[in-house]
Amino acid sequence: MFRRVGIAVGLGLCAILATPGTTLAFSNNEIHIAVVTDIGGSFSDVAGTGATVAADLAIEDVGGRIGRTPIHLSTVDHRNDPTIAAEAVRTLHAQRPISVIAELGGTDVSLPLQTLADELGIAALHSGSLTSALTGEACSPNAVHWGYDTYSLGSVISSQIFSNSWHLWTILTPEGDVGDGFRDDLTRRIHASGGFVTDVVRYPFGALDLTEALIAAENGEGEAIAVATAGEDLTNMLRQMYERGLNRSDKGVAIINMSVHDVQALGLYVTTGLEFTVPFYWDHDDQTRAFAQRFWNRAGTFPSAVHAAVYSSVRSYLQAADAVRTDNPERVIGRMRETPVNDFFGRGGEIRPDGRLMHPKYRVRVKTARESQGIGDYLDVIEEIPADAAFPPLSQSACPLLG
């Protein structure tokens, strides 16, 4: 399907010049979008420069400007460090006022940046962060959470409790805030589906040798193991599980957060048969394939769910800014919350008062090497999970905006 060409986006240099005319009510007489992402770290494949490509495609699809107001696109490498991320955003904002920050992957980065965005008076579009706190206790009137979170990713467990009768679960997750979020939301999900968490095994984030954690999980009381991590930790974990034969043992294995890029990195022989939940798969239908072709032409690879969410959120933001004729964050985000999202990602989704975009999820299974037709053809979509089943009800939200 795809023909590889060079990347056609310059990081931080996508300024679109306006012709003279009436200036609308925008900061610095422009809309400045800053994609804050992981360029060279463990999440660079699913986010990284591809997030900038996705944002640039969204700008292109609204005509490259709002009225006669130019759109400027910058990229910030947060290096998975909240201090570096905050300093870089502050510096950029002082040099050229930012209207909105986008992508924001990584819990350690996304929560501080949401606070900073409120302080600076700019909007925040979260696509890559997993923490459900963004629409809970840390919610903001100036922010939306477009992608997945730790609760919705656990949808695969609900399906496997019923299809495989795995009722007792061991959760394998890293230490720290990310692991805490996985543990808490997966426990809620498992209990709500009639299961029970017997053990929680923690390991140091970024550890290379995971033998001790894998032995503990294998010896746990659970009938199945919920592998709840991401990025290089996930690929390292699955590779060592495969080497130990754990995925071929009597223990069930559920992968909570995986991407098509992880499958490619590990290979089909390691990942065949694994099931997980995604909000987007490039080969799902004609709409997703059309976006994937455009993305491939720019980036030379297929888009991840994060890339799709960046495109969708940035385009929705720009359409809202066009409608209200300002980049005032409360007015733009307020308009976004009033407007259904009708694209290949949102599919008629709506933004709740806590900032959560409600949209469907998909349970997928990794194909065998024989089934795969080539690069990127790795997944079968086996179930669509409606938004109200994927995400917790609004009544359970801890967002203080709800009163």
From TrEMBL:
Keywords: Signal
Entry annotated with the keyword Transmembrane helix: no
Signal peptide: 1-25
Entry-linked InterPro entries: BCAA_transport (IPR051010), Leu-bd (IPR028081), Peripla_BP_I (IPR028082)
Sequence ranges assigned to domain Leucine-binding protein in this UniProt record: 30-368
UniProt cross-references to SUPFAM superfamilies, sorted A to Z: Periplasmic binding protein-like I
Pfam families linked: Peripla_BP_6
Gene3D superfamilies: 3.40.50.2300
Family of this protein: Belongs to the leucine-binding protein family.
Protein name per Swiss-Prot or TrEMBL: Branched-chain amino acid transport system substrate-binding protein
Organism: Natronocella acetinitrilica
